[in-house]
Amino acid sequence: EDQVTQSPEALRLQEGESSSLNCSYTVSGLRGLFWYRQDPGKGPEFLFTLYSAGEEKEKERLKATLTKKESFLHITAPKPEDSATYLCADQAGTALIFGKGTTLSVSS
Amino acid sequence: SQTIHQWPATLVQPVGSPLSLECTVEGTSNPNLYWYRQAAGRGLQLLFYSVGIGQISSEVPQNLSASRPQDRQFILSSKKLLLSDSGFYLCARKLGPGELFFGEGSRLTVL
């Protein structure tokens, strides 16, 4: 069964304390790995697409990387406004299979 | 600009009652539309998708149904709600491979 597993489930950081979120996938024939950000009570917002191992994408304090079996979302010097749930997803047929997400809390 | 309207934003319904959630998309024609559900402790689950008027594909068996009566309108319905139907329902349109634009969602509590 196709699966996407994210870890940790929750992460608390101090402002400026860098860290990484993990996304492991088991979908055969990967057709892309996608990262989203979701604020409480809102719909997810698209961040990045990664297609091949070694690929990297950056946006402000976020950098997403991809290997053959997992993806990382690196957060450098986070700020309180980076607090959100980060979801990863991969493509399986017509559907996006989402992980349960990592809830990030950044305190000042 | 892209806008997806979902309503109602919040509703509380008794078990066994009917349901109708509406999604209207602005700023595009013939969009691919999706209904996702996010339940407590679970990831986003794809319920239905539609590539055009009257064309609905179901991803999971359930007591829910979907309809697309107009190009920019997508409706999620149920004749009799179950407790397990509680969750956050999100309508989305496809912008590109793996890229979805989501609406603000409808939060359903079934009591």
What would you say this structure looks like, in words?
The complex is a heterodimer of chains A (108) and B (111). Chain A is an all-beta fold. Chain A has strands at residues 4-7, 10-14, 19-25, 33-38, 45-50, 56-59, 62-66, 70-75, 84-92, 95-98, 102-107. Chain A contains no helices and eleven strands. In chain A, the strands form two sheets. In chain A, strands 2, 4, 5, 9, 10 and 11 form a six-stranded mixed β-sheet that branches. Chain A has a five-stranded antiparallel β-sheet with strand order 1-3-8-7-6, with no helix packed on it. Chain A has a single domain, classed as Immunoglobulins (Immunoglobulin-like, Sandwich), CATH 2.60.40. Chain A is globular and about 40 Å long. Chain B has 111 residues and is mainly β. Chain B has one domain (3-110): Sandwich (Immunoglobulin-like), CATH 2.60.40.10. Chain B is 0% helix and 61% strand. Chain B has strands at 3-7, 10-13, 19-26, 33-38, 44-52, 55-58, 64-70, 73-78, 87-96, 99-102, 106-110. In chain B, strand 9 and strand 10 form a beta hairpin. Chain B is globular, with a radius of gyration of 13 Å. The relative contact order of chain B is 0.33. The mean pLDDT of chain B is 93. The A-B interface holds A 4, 31-32, 34, 41-46, 49, 87, 89, 91, 94-96, 98-101 and B 41-46, 49, 57, 59, 90, 92, 95, 97-105, 107.
Strand content of chain B: over 45%
Total domains of chain A, how many? Answer: 1
CATH class of chain B: Mainly Beta
Number of helical regions of chain A: 0
Largest sheet of chain A: 6 strands, mixed
The helix/strand class of chain A is: mainly beta
**Oligomer class:** heterodimer
The third-level CATH topology of chain B is Immunoglobulin-like
List the helices and strands and how they pair.
The complex is a heterodimer of chains A (108) and B (111).
Chain A lengths: L3 E4 L2 E5 L4 E7 L7 E6 L6 E6 L5 E4 L2 E5 L3 E6 L8 E9 L2 E4 L3 E6 L1
Parallel strand pairs in A: 2-11
Antiparallel strand pairs in A: 1-3, 3-8, 4-5, 4-9, 6-7, 7-8, 9-10, 9-11
Chain B lengths: L2 E5 L2 E4 L5 E8 L6 E6 L5 E9 L2 E4 L5 E7 L2 E6 L8 E10 L2 E4 L3 E5 L1
Parallel strand pairs in B: 2-11
Antiparallel strand pairs in B: 1-3, 3-8, 4-5, 4-9, 5-6, 7-8, 9-10, 9-11
